[in-house]
Amino acid sequence: MIIVGELINASRKAVGEAIKQEDHAFIQKLATDQTEAGATYIDVNAGIFVGKEGQYMEWLIKNIKEVTDLPCSVDSPDPKVIEQGLKINGDDVMINSISLEKERLDAILPLIAGTPYKIVALCMDDEKMPETQEERLKIADVLINKLIQNNVKLENIYVDPLVQPISTDKTFGMGFIDSVAAIMTNYPGIHTICGLSNISYGLPERKFLNRNFAVMAIAKGLDGLLIDPLDKKMMSSICAAETLVGRDDFNVKYLKAYRKKKLEV
């Protein structure tokens, strides 16, 4: 399972303050904690700092790389900031993200064409947020083919079908999950990823719903999540789900987590 640790995000009050104060220790502890908890990538987002986002993106990445070998996920709505982040990373990096929105597509494609970068591909275009499986798959198909035509390897594409709140439409949960299944079936070797907390927006016990939704999506093929890896119950649910769907040969990962007392039930 690809776990993108979401905690180094300037929109979180404590992180934003740490960035303003250039608190190296705070940021580096978040990086090491997520690494030890099982993250695969460290997401880096300085998006609240208009005018200084690129500067802070570089500062964050430099500090993270001092304490962990994990690759970063360069996360920004601004293609110029993404380009700045790429300049101080190696080839093993994730870009969050590209979409079918024309302005963003035109700006990001030249940065990734022919590179080994991993890319999160959002199922979004200039018209609206997709609401049905059919709308998601239509966008995904066009976006995947554009990326492949620009020499992006299929295995480097992480399609995000976009989670939307079940509180606003009861079909959004299965619409997302069925989209994951279809994408993974139609494009063998591709990845699917999401930040899943939107599913529970407006409802009580959100973490409980998020955990169960993650397990359902993993059962349909989802193999990437942007989450808080310090959430032990979420990580335990992911570990169990991967074992149950056959992604854990000889139950090695599950037994290892058990022995290290990492399973929280």
Automatic annotation (TrEMBL):
Domain of life: Bacteria
Alphabetical keyword list: Cobalamin, Cobalt, Metal-binding, Methyltransferase, Transferase
InterPro entries: Dihydropteroate_synth-like_sf, Met_Synthase/Corrinoid, Pterin-binding_dom
Molecular functions (GO terms): methyltransferase activity
Record-linked PROSITE patterns: PTERIN_BINDING
Domain spans labelled Pterin-binding: 1-259
Family of this protein: Belongs to the vitamin-B12 dependent methionine synthase family.
This protein's name: Methyltetrahydrofolate cobalamin methyltransferase
